[in-house]
Specification:
By secondary structure, the chain is α+β, with helices and mostly antiparallel strands. It contains four helices and six strands. Helix content is 71%, strand content 13%. The strands form two sheets. A three-stranded antiparallel sheet has the order 1-4-5. Helix 2 (125-143) runs antiparallel to helix 4 (154-176). The longest helix has 121 residues, at 2-122. It is rod-shaped. The N and C termini lie far apart (196 Å). Keywords: Chaperone, Mitochondrion, Transit peptide.
Length: 238
Amino acid sequence: CTDLHIHSVNMAVVGRMCSRLVRNLLLARSGLVKNSVSQRCQWHFLSTTAAKTESGQKSEEKTPQEDKPAEAGTQAEDVFKEEREKLTSSIAELQDKYKRALAETENVRQRLNKQIEDAKLFGIQGFCKDLLEVADILNRATNSVPEEVMNESPHLKSLFEGLTMTESQLQRVFTRYGLTQISPEEGEVFDPNIHEALFQAPQIEGREPGTVAKVTKIGYRLHSRTLRPALVGVYKEC
């Protein structure tokens, strides 16, 4: 019995010792776990903080790089606006020059057409002036022979008729080419565009001053241009 009692006591002591040992082991293990968890939390906190810091530094480093493209874009936009203004002004200047050139070309074309028409109408002006002297001579010849003398001489009458027919034919040719006579009547208003005053005649009753008194030499007009004004005398004022 005594031995059994001792053996049971020893077993109880051993049990308590084992329980203490297990408890100590559990406490040590829990301490290690706690330490590892805290270390892991601290490591996670430090790594997160470091990552945030690094990302912040990177963002700070990237901010100037992001600002640089914005500044470059603004500069490019300014350059584009300046180039656009230059091109717009250049286009406006070219359009103005183009319109002026068109207007000048149109004016030149109209002047050339006018010159061509004038050349067609008045190209024979010099030739007509030379023929006017011939017409004047024929006119003086037909007006210088008295009618009673022509009746006495058949040959002179035939010559007179020939000169008259020649003068009539010459006047028809003149009319065909646009050359007409300027032969004002007595009392017609003096026109400086088609008349040339050679002298002043005394005013008579019933005639206005400044009107044609006598025609000394008939004039001629080629179409609308006065080729030679009529030489006339004008009544003067009292």
